[in-house]
Structure formats: C-alpha cells, structure tokens
Design goal:
- The complex is a heterodimer.
- By secondary structure, chain A is mostly beta strands.
- Chain A is built from two helices and seven strands; from the N terminus they run βββββαββα.
- Chain A has one domain.
- The chains are: A mainly beta, B alpha+beta.
Amino acid sequence: MLTNGETYVSATGHFPLVNVTPVLQLSVHVKGNALSDLYISIHHPSMGSPAQGKGDDLAERGPIRIGEVFVTGQAALLSWAPPAELASAYPL
Amino acid sequence: MADDEKVHRPRFFDRIHRNNRHRRHQYPVILIAFTALAAFLYALPFWVKFHEQFQSLSQAVADALVVAVVVSLAVEPRLLRYFGEELKSFGEQLGTQTFWSSFYSRAPRIYIDAIKALAEAEQFTIASNWVVSFDWVDAEKTVIKLSVEHANHRENRSSKDFAVVTRSFIYESPFGQYKSQLRSHAVLCEAIEFLAICLRMDALKWYGKEVAYCEFIPPRIRKFHSLKFPQELVSQC
C-alpha cells in the first residue's frame, strides 16, 4: 500500500509512524529544505532515540532503519524543533 | 548506555536483559564445573585404588566431559554462526535473527517466544518505509509543509484474505490558509497485476468466499467500479 499525504505544521512538532500488523523492518528517511534549521529526533519504545541530530545530518544517512522484528506491530515517533528552542528549553 | 536511555527503557526489556545476564553467568559456571569434574576424575586413580572397570569408566566420563567443554567453547559457536551466515541469503538479517533466537540456547526466553509467534504469523508487513519531507512555506520560516510518503510492503502466506484496512491518516493543518490533504492511497498487487488508486478513505472493500471483489469509488468520477478476481489470486495480496 502506498500512501501520500501532506499537512502544515509549526517549527516544533511530532508525527507518529505506526504499523499495527507484525513488522519485519521499519525505516524512516527525512528530507527537505527546512532540515538545515531543525533538530530531528526519532523515538522508539525499545530503543530510546536511535536517531537524533541536525536535520541535514540525518538526511545524509538516507533511510534510517528503526527497531528490529516486532510481532505486535511497530511504532516510532518523529519529532522536530529548531535548535534555538531546544537550547532554551534544556540549557547546559 | 546513557542515563537518559536507561530512564526510558521499559521494564519488559529490563527483564530480558536480567534473564540474559543470568544465563550468561550460568554458562561459564557450568563449563568450569565440567572441567573441574573431569580433572577430578583423571586424578582419582592416583589417590584411590579402584577396580579396573571403575577406573576405565571414570576415565571415559572424564574424556566425555573434556570433549563437551571443547565442543561448547570452540565448535558450537562457530557452527551456529556458520548456519546463521548461510541463512542470511534467504532472508538477510531476519533469517539470522530467527535462527539465533530459536536455536541459540542462551537467547532470552521472551525473545525466543516472540520469534516463534512471528514464525506462526502468516500475514505480516515485510517493510514499512516512511519518507518525511520538511519544507518551509513562508520566508519567515514559521510554517513547514510536512509531506509524508508511506510504502507498506505486505505478505500473505495463508489461504485467507489479507484485509486491506486503511489506517493511514494525516494531521489536520492548524493554519487556516493551508489545508492538509491525503493526496493518494494506492493498493498495488503484483500477483494479479492490480493497481487501485483510492482517493477516498474506506473506498476499498474485500469480501466473499469463493470469489473476492474489489470495489473502489474514485470521488472525482463518482462511478461505481467492481473488479472480480479468482480467490487464489486475491489471497496472495
């Protein structure tokens, strides 16, 4: 099944990537001209944050494989925010 | 492992790792015990005089223990890894993972059970590939156009139909001037050379026992379409 959709979001947000059938593998590929201004993080229930960093860096990695074989389905959360906002929320 | 990852790790996986650690600790203890017992049996005739038959018996048991320890240390891991590599050609990492977790005696029990359950599953997703594109809409960089492409590759190994259930969604846009939309939803089945472009949710239905029907109603045409396929072909979708 091939699904294609689009929506409009603010500079900070998240999007769930969900499969409810048994899944052998899941991959995420990020791209776009806004990535240079964003910090991307992919969260997985069993792996914590297997991929996170500057948007451009993640885009260069191509499709990023998340998780392993999952019998009860597979889910990951893609979240993003501008680096400046993260710096103010989590000061060093 | 970083501290923040520990915090987020669920109890389920903590239990797996605890069991795994426990098994790993057991394994060297058993090997050391076997080695010590073999050494004891070898040395026993020097201390105590037994009947010749008993001496040969203890010698044979000691030999067997040494062979078991050597096989366990040197041969078994290499053999298992060799078969695991062989299986890679069939299903890449899946074959290896399934093999290791099913036959590797020290794999966590929970993981073995999970892989067995997967082996029994006849309808599953082979790969779920997401491509998410972030593009600025305005020069002020306040609104992002989020484009989501999802390819769900499925496989049906049972004689039953694999229901096409559309669970795809897209967030509603909070910006009035920009509307979200599900641009396309397509079902492609190579086995029957069938491609349905469903532009409306719930437009696709499968039903029937002897013969299955696929119905889809493109909203622009508003005309009912019905396609009829033999059951054995539909079951492959």
